[in-house]
Design brief:
2 helices; mainly alpha; 185 residues
């Protein structure tokens, strides 16, 4: 029995040895594949490192570009704000000019209206003065006619009243004819 137990133990050791050898062969194949993949992995890692460095350089360049863009944008915003302030000032000044022009135009209209009314008043005064002078001339002419009638009556002596009136009427008619013809008689 001891042989059987020894044989069983040796058989068991042999089976375990065969299993170990099989497992080592499998592990060797896998290690071979891993070593073969190691070159590909190194290439991949190298590419990954290169890509990482390129990305870092791109990030640095982007940060520089971003800083430049921020500076440019800040400058442009400052100029835009300055221009906006200047335009607002110019609009305000323009509104003031328009207000002044409106006031000047209103004053000119008011002045023209006053001038027109003053001209109308002056024209009416001139018309009144012309009418007054014409009335005065008529009164003077009538007075001259009466004086002439008195003189004729005094020179003629006693004349009938109707003859004196007829002579005065004749004198007055000749005077009117002379005035309408344009000569002062």
């Amino acid at each position: 029995m001891e042989n059987v137990v020894g044989f069983a133990i040796e058989s068991l050791v042999a089976v375990l040895l065969v299993a170990t050898i099989a497992y080592c062969a499998l592990l060797n194949r896998r290690l071979g594949k891993l070593r073969a993949d190691e070159g590909v992995m190194r290439e991949t890692i190298t590419e990954l490192v290169a890509s990482t460095h390129a990305a870092e350089r791109a990030i640095v360049a982007l940060r520089a570009a971003l800083g430049h863009c921020e500076d440019t944008l800040a400058e442009r915003l400052g100029r835009a704000e300055t221009m906006s302030t200047a335009i607002a000032g110019q609009l305000s000044a323009g509104e003031e000019v328009i207000e002044r022009i409106t006031q000047i135009a209103k004053a000119a209209r008011d002045h023209a209206a006053r001038e027109a009314s003053m001209d109308e008043i002056a024209r009416r005064d001139a018309d009144r003065e012309a009418v007054r002078l014409a009335a005065r001339r008529r009164a003077e002419e009538e007075e001259e006619a009466r004086a002439l009638i008195r003189r004729v009556a005094e020179e003629a002596g006693p004349v009938s009243r109707s003859a004196a009136t007829a002579a005065a009427a004749e004198l007055f008619a000749s005077r009117i004819r002379a005035l309408s013809a344009g000569s002062p008689a």
